[in-house]
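Re: that backbone. Tokens:
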């Protein structure tokens, strides 16, 4: 099974036919898809300007989509390296029990579903890397009341999500499932109340 970098080389290789280059870009999402596979694909297609079903998109647009994905992946890999180093230090200092951020991080190792979007058509509009930078910054500070990606205050608790955790606060502005560790207990309680109002 090819890794992300090998697949990225196939996307960039002008000797490959367009069908293979497009297929390789889709396969990259099996290795790294911050919003989930379908939502990340929708995002990349709309940002790069080609249709999701376009079997022979402009090669420059494919490479633009790959560039955006690679930049976001570099941001996430840097965070994971820092996370691993921090956990190593904590274990060395006798802190064996991970915190709530660590529990969340375990579910997103490798970058799949970091900012899960349960509805693949609703996701942040800006660059993937910027979304991840904002999310990481929120994980590294005290919990807040707003979505860390778009600063929207309208969070609604949803159940039966197609990703772990299977329920959680969803931002109605950008569509991400907001990691619980970045929200205060009051914000989580408000999201649960909003669910009750929506379902009533």
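Recovered sequence:
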């Amino acid at each position: 099974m090819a890794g992300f970098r090998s697949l990225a080389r196939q996307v960039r290789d002008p000797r490959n036919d367009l069908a293979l280059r497009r297929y390789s870009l889709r396969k990259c999402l099996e290795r790294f898809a911050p919003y989930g596979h379908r939502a990340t694909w929708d995002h990349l297609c709309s940002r790069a300007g080609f249709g999701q079903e376009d079997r022979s998109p402009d090669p420059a647009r494919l490479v633009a989509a790959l560039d955006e994905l690679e930049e976001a992946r570099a941001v996430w890999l840097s965070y994971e390296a820092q996370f691993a180093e921090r956990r190593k230090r904590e274990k060395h200092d006798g802190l064996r029990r991970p915190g709530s951020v660590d529990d969340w991080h375990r579910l997103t190792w490798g970058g799949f579903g970091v900012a899960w979007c349960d509805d693949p058509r609703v996701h942040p509009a800006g660059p993937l890397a910027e979304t991840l930078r904002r999310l990481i910054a929120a994980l590294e500070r005290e919990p807040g009341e707003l979505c860390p990606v778009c600063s929207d205050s309208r969070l609604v608790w949803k159940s039966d999500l197609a990703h772990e955790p299977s329920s959680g606060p969803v931002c109605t502005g950008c569509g991400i499932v907001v990691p619980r560790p970045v929200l205060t207990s009051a914000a989580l309680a408000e999201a649960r109340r909003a669910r009750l109002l929506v379902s009533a």
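Residues 4-199 form one domain. Helices lie at 4-12, 18-28, 37-48, 59-92, 100-107, 128-139, 185-199.
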